[in-house]
Amino acid sequence: MFFTIPGLRNSGYDHWQTFWETQSPGQFKRIVQDNWETPEKTAWISRIQEVTSSYRDQEIVLIGHSVGCAAIVHWYKIYRRMIKGALLVAPSDVDREDYPCYIQGFDPMPLDSLPFPSFVVASSNDHVVKPERARFFARHWGSEFEQIENAGHIEGGSGYGPWEEGLKILHKFT
């Protein structure tokens, strides 16, 4: 099962996570948070655990966007589940000095190696994470890395609706 974990304010109708869920509802399930406006680490990672707890680890692929990526690596640090894999897209740099204070508890970003296959995708001009920081995260997490040129925050507003290339990356886990 593919579990999508959106970032701040959820993923809208024009976001690739929403497209994937709509196109294949039997394969993709969104992990819905109680509070999309002021993400809080403990609540977010508890929800990931709650939703995935009835699945075997080898059935689970987590797909994070932005602060959803930080939630995934924090979740792993607490629960240590050996899932099938993770796709981490446009990971939020929660350690930035100017990171929004209403996103709580996600810093510092865990830098432990992930013991399952993972793939980080970042943009050359993302306002949330600089490419060198995304590459730094990928190196520490032991993730494969791909940089997309001029893709903004890799979301609907940046032109990433269906994002077929992302699906191709995702199918490396199957």
Secondary-structure blueprint of this entry?
Elements: E1 2-5, H1 16-23, E2 28-30, H2 41-52, E3 61-65, H3 67-79, E4 85-89, E5 118-123, H4 131-141, E6 144-148, H5 164-170
Parallel strand pairs: 1-2, 1-3, 3-4, 4-5, 5-6
> How many domain regions?
1
The number of helices is 5
The count of strands amounts to 6
| Order of strands, widest sheet | 2-1-3-4-5-6
Helix content: 25-40%
Give a quick account of the main beta sheet: strands, pairing sense, barrel closure.
6 strands, parallel
Low-confidence stretches: none
By secondary-structure content and strand pairing, the structural class works out as: alpha/beta
- Second rung of CATH, namely the architecture: 3-Layer(aba) Sandwich
Report the radius of gyration as a whole number of Å: 14 Å
How would you sum up this structure in a few lines?
With 174 residues, the chain is of the alpha/beta class. It has five helices and six strands; from the N terminus they run βαβαβαββαβα.
